[in-house]
Design brief:
By secondary structure, this protein is mostly helical. The protein has one domain. It has six helices and no strands. The longest helix is centred in the last third of the chain and has 28 residues. The protein is elongated and about 55 Å long. The two termini are 20 Å apart.
Length: 131
């Protein structure tokens, strides 16, 4: 039972912590690096940790799937999806779903996904050495 719960707790804690960081960035940071770039890298980690809370080890290539999801969201921003849904008057939905397309965002999502792949790889190598 511990082997089932322990990784979920670890990922849940990371998810909650990173979500708090994302909210703090969205509400309080107005700079030219953290908010526009680092926040987009971190959101990949947030999604990763949330999914790993539900499926601690069962999804191969998870960082790739998260990147493709982020790419779909960015594509929706290109087509002004928030306005198509009639939610463009809502600040909440413009922040949640995003309002502007950017190739830089895609690069940040790719960087976050690559970091997730690297962390997974290192965790597997460390786990193999212990066994």
């Amino acid at each position: 039972m511990k082997a089932f719960i322990k990784p979920r707790i670890k990922y849940l804690f990371a998810f909650l912590l990173l979500t708090a960081v994302e909210f703090a960035i969205a509400l309080f940071v107005r700079d030219r690096f953290v908010r526009p770039y680092l926040g987009d890298v971190i959101i990949i980690f947030v999604i990763y940790c949330f999914i790993r809370t539900l499926f601690p080890s069962g999804i191969k290539l998870l960082p790739l799937y998260i990147f493709l999801f982020a790419l779909a969201v960015e594509t929706a921003q290109y087509f002004d999806f928030v306005a198509l849904l009639g939610l463009d008057g809502s600040r909440f939905f413009r922040i949640l779903l995003g309002a502007t397309f950017s190739f830089a965002d895609i690069a940040c999502y790719a960087a976050g996904s690559i970091i997730c792949f690297a962390v997974e790889y290192l965790q597997k190598r460390i786990h193999k050495r212990k066994n």
